[in-house]
Amino acid sequence: MHHTVVERELELRLVLSPERSIPVPARLSYRSDDPFAIHIGFHSTSEHPVHWTFARELLVEGVFRPCGHGDVRVWPTKVGGRSVVLMALSSPDGDALLEAPAAQVSAWLERTLRVVPPGTEGERLGLDEALAELLAPLPADDLWLRDPWPSDESKDGE
Questions:
Q1: Facing residues of 74 across strands?
Q2: pTM across the whole model
């Protein structure tokens, strides 16, 4: 099966305080062979990038309204008259609030939705084929299905 990758390099802002943020190079990545997830690599140009993976649906919804809980929360807002998407990420190593340009994130998401439309993600996983292969009988299954200890009872009623 052919797999498609949709990527976008962009500059996010790491919000340090209401008055201060710093640029963070990032790469958004979507793979049709992992259709429910998006991958974000922060500091993508450095030797040790930081990677996050979360549901594509979360980012799609977060462009329009606040969503998520726990480790990943996403919501739209305006900063200095610009439309942005905020992503609050939390891990045992720390917390980060990142600001992404809404238009660029939305355009990238639209490309992913054209590659794998919503509701068709499960078809891409090939679960039916994998399950059929896993459950397909093998010649040796015959041996396991036969009773190795025939009953003492006679089938003829003797």
A1: 67, 87
A2: 0.75
